[in-house]
Amino acid sequence: MRLLHTSDWHLGRAFHRVNMLGAQAEFIGHLVTTVRERGVDAVVVSGDVYDRAVPPLAAVELFDDALHRLADLGVPTVMISGNHDSARRLGVGAGLIGRAGIHLRTAPAACGTPVVLGDAHGDVAFYGLPYLEPALVKDEFGVEKAGHETVLAAAMERVRADLATRAPGTRSVVLAHAFVTGGEASDSERDITVGGVASVPAGVFDGVDYAALGHLHGCQAITERVRYSGSPLPYSFSEAGHRKTMWLVDLDAEGAVTAERVDCPVPRALARVRGTLEDLLADPSLAPHEEAWVEATLTDAVRPADPMARLTERFPHTLSLLFDPDRAPDDPDVSYAGRLAGRSDQEIAEDFVAHVRGAGPDERERTVLRDAFDAVRADEVLREVAR
């Protein structure tokens, strides 16, 4: 069976100030063409269909168009909700839509109930594990501690239990939206840390033939059978080095995996440039970036006059302008933002405690801080779900 694995469409999201709806529509067209021309038997979409719980109307219309075009091909599609989606909104009408071959899996309780498709070699069971927010689903899965690994492991136990009841030789595919250990993140994924831990081990997916993952925006293979498709479009300059693709996956009669990357349309290249303003304006080696979307970091010791206006004369698509003056680390003018760059909320809070009283928090105090951050994040999720 040939699968096309994609995820993280983020319909409705902009790239800095650039509306990406046109590029997203072009991607949908490319997806449909790939399904038709490459003999795809099933499409899997591993979450974050939308960029937010209440998407703009134009994004909903594009999603509706995608559903109709996929249904018209007569190729089944299995789709789960991600941490950016409202599972309840995305799942509205799932029963009716399923009759058209578009199978929406947004309810945690249905993790162990697969969509079963067949080919010349028998059945393939597709299990949809929507994003499992630990604080919201721990009761459903009967786990005492709300954590990503515990709830995902419990969901996978349901998958394995159902798979054990099926005919010998039944192959299996799991769709999941999670941060798996070993994956490379970028700046554009929403933080899903709980209890100081965001990732789960790849071994949680043992026992299935293929795990089609969503959440991380870079296409990558954690193992031969556990892969991220990545987002089809860039959503931060940290993705400048990404090659945006989908996975074309073949499952043979025994469940062995062969995978090929299929490139997605590139609306415009990304470039990150760094140096003094005069160097950036004069450096001939930067000529290939003149038509790219540019993030420029200026290292001038003194902020120059009208830097954006001058940059856009050479790089008309400059979208982000940062300042990072070349100074010694102990220079008192080093910015507060620079000192905090790359640090988690937990680390910043612990540093603050150490600064105020001269000694960092003990383990009990770290736990209190961690629980407080988890409670705030869970409250934000609940308020978004309730919108």
Describe the structure.
- The structure is a single chain.
- This protein is of the alpha/beta class and 387 residues long.
- It has two domains: 2-263, Metallo-dependent phosphatases (Purple Acid Phosphatase, chain A, domain 2, 4-Layer Sandwich); 270-326, no CATH class.
- Helix content is 32%, strand content 23%.
- The protein has eleven helices and 19 strands.
- The chain has helices at residues 21-37, 57-73, 87-90, 94-98, 134-141, 148-164, 277-282, 307-314, 336-340, 345-357, 363-386, and strands spanning 2-6, 14-15, 18-19, 42-46, 77-80, 102-105, 115-119, 122-129, 171-177, 179-180, 199-200, 210-214, 220-221, 226-228, 245-251, 257-263, 270-275, 293-298, 318-323.
- The chain has a six-stranded mixed beta sheet. It has a six-stranded mixed beta sheet with strand order 7-8-9-12-14-13, covered by helices on one side.
- Helix 10 crosses helix 11.
- The longest helix has 24 residues, at 363-386.
Helix tally equals 11
Main sheet: strand order: 6-5-4-1-15-16
3D shape: globular
First-to-last CA distance: 40 Å
What is the mean pLDDT? 91
| Fourth-tier CATH superfamily name of the largest domain | Metallo-dependent phosphatases
Query: What is the annotated CATH architecture of the largest domain?
Result: 4-Layer Sandwich
Number of strands: 19
- List segments where confidence is low: pLDDT < 50 over at least 5 consecutive residues: none
Helix content: 25-40%
Give me the strand/helix succession: EEEHEHEHHEEEHHEEEEEEEEEHEHEHHH
**CATH structural class of the largest domain:** Alpha Beta
Number of domains: 2
Largest sheet: 6 strands, mixed
CATH topology of the largest domain: Purple Acid Phosphatase, chain A, domain 2
- Rg over alpha carbons: 23 Å
Decide which structural class fits the backbone: alpha/beta
Strand content: 15-25%
